[in-house]
Write a structure and sequence with these properties.
With 231 residues, the protein is of the alpha+beta class. The protein has 9 helices and 5 strands; from the N terminus they run H-H-H-H-H-H-H-E-E-H-E-H-E-E. Helices cover 43% and strands 16% of the residues. Helix 2 crosses helix 3 and helix 6 runs antiparallel to helix 7. It is elongated and about 65 Å long.
Length: 231
């Protein structure tokens, strides 16, 4: 069996911490960044080898690691509650940072703008949530509001709550959004019924529903783009 190479056995310029200090965090690979967070491996594997194994398990997609909960991290050999907590905290900081950026770049001119705005709220979730984006007359997003979680149905998506939130902010329009954790972004019959119901209520209140997005981490479906908003 090949002996594990400890980080301390690497030359100074090869060690992740020293490399970051000397060249900046952008010089580190994903494996090295993850190894820095993990700190140490265990008897059979160094932190770098453990990080490489973790990334290979998730096809080297960092966004998949960001979806892991505390217990899922702790199922990885060498990751205890302390390391799992640090990893979750780092990914949560990254999510909140993306959300803050959205507050500056918040004009919606197309479905892609709306998708990029709402993605940090919905893209990492492993359960369904339904949100609205509240827009003013210039199509600037005033807020993003969660309406329900745990699935989409007529009982959970209450028009009174949807439009109550929008009217209290003197909105001119809203965009609906919910996620499909499975990755399938084709709308269900229930998605279509909810959309049309809210569109009808919005017309009565003179508050336009501009679109309904189905969100996944890597893709989205736009009712408006597909021309089925009024079907």
């Amino acid at each position: 069996m090949e002996k594990s190479v400890k980080i301390k056995a690497l030359s100074t310029e090869e060690r992740p911490r020293e490399k970051m200090i000397g060249k900046g965090p952008g010089s580190l690979s994903n494996v090295e960044l993850l190894a820095l967070l993990i700190g140490s491996g265990y008897a059979d594997k160094s932190a770098i080898e453990l990080s490489r194994d973790i990334l290979e398990t998730y096809d080297h997609y960092l966004h998949r690691l960001s979806q892991l909960n505390l217990m899922e991290w702790m199922e990885v050999k060498g990751i205890g509650v302390g390391k799992a907590s640090v990893l979750q905290a780092c990914f949560e900081i990254a999510r909140r940072s993306r959300q803050e950026i959205q507050l500056v770049r918040k004009k919606v001119s197309c479905s892609r703008d709306a998708y990029e705005y709402i993605l940090p709220y919905l893209g990492h979730l492993q359960h369904e949530e339904f949100w609205i984006m509240v827009l003013n007359r210039s199509n600037m997003v005033m807020s993003a509001q969660r309406i329900s979680e745990g699935g989409i149905s007529s009982t959970l998506v209450d028009p009174k709550k949807v439009f109550g939130l929008a009217l209290r902010q003197h909105a001119s329009a809203i965009i609906l959004a919910h996620n499909h954790p499975s990755g399938a972004i084709v709308p269900s019959s229930e998605d279509e019924l909810i959309t049309q119901r809210l569109r009808r209520v919005g017309r009565d209140l003179e508050l336009n529903v501009l679109d309904h997005l189905i969100i996944h981490a890597n893709a989205y479906f736009s009712f408006a783009d597909e021309g089925i908003l009024d079907q």
